[in-house]
Amino acid sequence: GINAEYGELRQPTMARQLLLACSALALAHSLPHGVWSEESMTNTAAAFSWKTGTPNRSDFATSYLREKMLESAPVVAAQGTFTGPPVLSAIFGTNNFAALTEFDSAVGLITIGNDGKGGCAVVPFHNHPNCYEYMTTISGYGAYGQVRPDGTTAWSPIMRPGDVYVMRQSSQHFYRNLDPKGTWQFEISFTCSEVGSSSAWKWLLQLDKQLAKQFFDVSDATAESIISPIDPATGEQYTYEGVSKVSSIRYIPECATEAATWDTKMANDGHLKFKGLFESQPILKSPDGRSALRLLAAPYRGPASEAPTTYSTTGTFPGIDGFGYSISYITIATGDMMMPMTVANAHTVYHVLTPEGTNPFSVDGQHILVCQFTYNSQLVVDTLQGHDVVIVPRGTLHFIVNIGENAARILGHYDTQFPTMGVTSDFFPNLPANMVKGLMGVTAAAAKEMSRPGFKQPAFKKFSGTLATLHEWVLKKPTYNVLDNPDEETEADKMSISYLLTALKIDQKYLAKFEAHEIDWDAVKHLRVRQMTSVLGLPLGPALKIQAFFRKKWHHGGRMHAPPGRTMTRMT
User: Fold this and answer.
1) β-sheet bridge partners, residue 147
2) pLDDT digits (tens, 9 = 90+) for 355-413
3) Which of 94, 284, 277 is nearest to 196 (CA)?
4) Rounded Cα distance, 43 and 6, in Å
5) Which residue among 14, 64, 252, 400 sits deepest, i.e. has the most Cβ atoms within 10 Å of its Cβ?
6) How far is it, in rounded angstroms, from Cα 135 to Cα 273?
7) Separation between Cα atoms, residue 265 and residue 273, nearest integer Å
8) CA angle 464, 382, 184 (to 5 degrees)
9) Strand, coil or helix: what is 223?
10) Span 104-121, pLDDT tens digits
11) What is the pTM of this model?
12) CB atoms < 10 A from the CB of 221, how many?
């Protein structure tokens, strides 16, 4: 997956801590003073207690991106499990957000900066063979390049906050920061659950020199340089065997000069750019316009009888017609809520952004409540913060309350090119009173008050209650964890080979092979793939799954360490 492709790269910790401290001070001094009413002060206190309490989280939500941003990871994506041919699924193994599996959507972040010497970061050419990639700039500016299906090269215009660009499926492409004094951050979202990734710069290292010479029609010296290039960080030559020690992120000098002429000399692929999603005309909004939903979508192509009537179906982004994916940008003002809605024709993945203008690696300043009515008629409640992600399945009634002190910013992702959505709770008031009474079981007086033919609520409105009372309601809601998550098992259950095979969906028939060689839990996590295939006789697929499982949990500092008193001679 894309996380493995770029590794666990880090930004300077001290610099990041200083930036976060400055951001916190700036935020504290920017909050309005002397304007809080007694009720708003109560709400603020409730929000604080909410932040310090334990999140009421379901299987539908994850903090994976949030946790990785706290580690300053420049490339990260929340993904499910690849579903497809076994020969391909054997090489996948990310699955850091199991609930995404088979939802055809994955979400992540890329944050790339500069070298402090006028050079800007670039992520070299790579591709995603099983999905399209949508990239929404959050802060800073940069540009993309990609190879079209016909082999020609396409260059995006410069992308700024709110701009969206789309990578064609399977195209080799790169990302390029163009601000020599700043950082470019953009969200990445994909039309698949787990993202495949292969890099052009890595396949070149595995060529025979004479092939490189013929492919590019170059001299022997140039061909030698292609298959054994120089690591820009160390100045040393390396080959494919040492590629794991080489950073995927490079720096290209004099990017300010390049940025000045990029749009006039380079850009040739503007039809896959959507300009200004954050400032575009909303399709749904609150009466005062402070809360809104803005949509990036191709024209509606579904049945005419199911087309929405409350907003235009012409679409806002013709370039993605046929891609089967769309995005929204949602803002919910402080103290506002998104009314109960359903997206009738798409699964939705919401990604909570941080406040505009905050440090790129900050995760603070956002706090929302997402409530959804699941397929088994249970109301699920999740409290989410900056860079948390939540799934809302197709047709699920859900609502969102901003319980924080800042306007909430959310990117919504839909696995259809044009989502149909509306305020579902308007249904009951539009019924005659006798139907309201019969269907809802309310009193005659209540039915009379409820029944108002022609009743229509805005998509967003002010939450008029108190957060403290809402908080008490949330605490009474049960957690909702229906997936068989290995992390929920006891420690004893998690220390057996049988458990491992079950968790990774590997046939239990291989258990005997481990037992024959007296390989227990402590030993198996230190085995190499070659040892598992040649000595234990495991197929390559299961061996790769086992290796990926333990790398995720116990791999530190790039080396595997054998437990005290144990050597690996038995398996060599």
Assistant:
1) 153
2) 999 999 999 999 999 999 999 899 999 999 999 999 999 999 999 999 999 999 999 99
3) 94
4) 42
5) 400
6) 10
7) 17
8) 95
9) helix
10) 999 999 999 999 999 999
11) 0.79
12) 9
